User: What shape does this take?
Amino acid sequence: GTTFYAKYDQTVFSPQIMNLPIIRYAEILLMKAEISNDVASINMVRTRAGLADLAAVTADAVFDERRRELVFEGDYFHNLKRLQQPINGIAWNANRMTFPIPRAELEANDNLRQNPGYAGL
Assistant: This one.
């Protein structure tokens, strides 16, 4: 069978509604757990997901919970960079791990130089 991704109700993406989620409460709770080692915050997320509570908070536990809870939300790459972790075997701060500056921006400002990982653009 085919698996479909349906994390959000598709009606929120209709042009008439445009009620797109920007940040979710689970993300706020995970930030709190990461910042203050608050076990209650991470356990609120885990309880909602039907998982057992953790006895303690570790950086790895928060990262793993964030990876699972926020899957398909586009922040995994940025979290790896923030935590200075390699990305597919490439150092987090390698030149090719930067985004290119759009050509229109480069053309509009002579003082800008393309990010080194995109020097050929």
